[in-house]
Amino acid sequence: MRFALSTNWNNGRLADGSAIVDEALELGFDALELGFRTTPEQLAGFKRRLDEMPVDSVHAYCPVPVGAPSGHPELHQLADPDEDERALARLLLKQTLRCAQEVGARVVVTHAGYVRLDGWFVNRGSDALKVLILGKDGQPEPQNPRHVKFLAKARARRNVRGVKLRDTFRRELDLVLPDLEKAGVTLALENLPSLEGFPNAEEAEFLMKDLAGAPVKLWFDTGHARVRECHGWSESATDIATRVGDHVCGLHLNDVMDYQDDHRQPGWGKVDFAALAPLARRDVLRVFEPHRPVSFEDLKSSVTWMRKLWSARP
Fold this sequence. Notes:
Blueprint: E1 4-6, H1 17-27, E2 31-34, H2 40-48, E3 55-59, H3 83-103, E4 107-110, E5 113-114, H4 126-132, H5 145-183, E6 186-190, E7 197-198, H6 201-210, E8 216-221, H7 222-231, H8 237-244, E9 248-253, H9 277-280, E10 285-288, H10 296-311
Parallel strand pairs: 1-2, 1-10, 2-3, 3-4, 4-6, 6-8, 8-9, 9-10
Antiparallel strand pairs: 5-7
């Protein structure tokens, strides 16, 4: 089973792309995902080593755009109510598509955007819900009556406003599709770890049905899905994986302790990776996306563990 490493794990520590490749090989990875923190200088090093370490995917926006203070996947967003923001997102996406072509990647992963839930007098978004879910002891209590009531209202507002953003985004994709087709690259929409994250499962299903045959698919982040499940922002991670699995072209593999987007190595937290095996065994890209606190030794052990877990048949 093929596994790739997101270079976001070590590109803040290693300035040379070739050195990043050396670490990935030593860890036992088969390929890379170029992360959104990739610099033009690192990109040159990756290109020199493509025969040893291919690039399966690129995370928008890559390399770090000129003038940007640092790399970030949400510098501008295609799913944004503001027309100027969408235009800037299209420009940065074109640059990322060129990067993907240059390194032979077949998928560009993107954070599409967010449904805005704030009102004039009340915030019904994820930040407010994270406070309301806490009990008197400071621990999460999902069945807290006040939280349950507030969550229901927030989800209702999310559904209504999501339809409007979905339609805006769908029109935006019509402007992007020619570039995707010309580049021969698939755009993958990542599930995001907040109630506002767009698209949710319902919006994703609508888009995939409407875009049947187009080079636009879904990207499933295991940690993000678990965070959404625990907060009550979506169904269980495994249910969502089953529901949208036919449209998923890749996975970000990271683990969490339920309520926080920890981005640790698989096997560290509470993501049920065994239950996600049916999705992982499809024709999808599998990308480890740990954050920097994860050590070399822990990541190497995790790769070995995942190969064994997902290679075993029930």
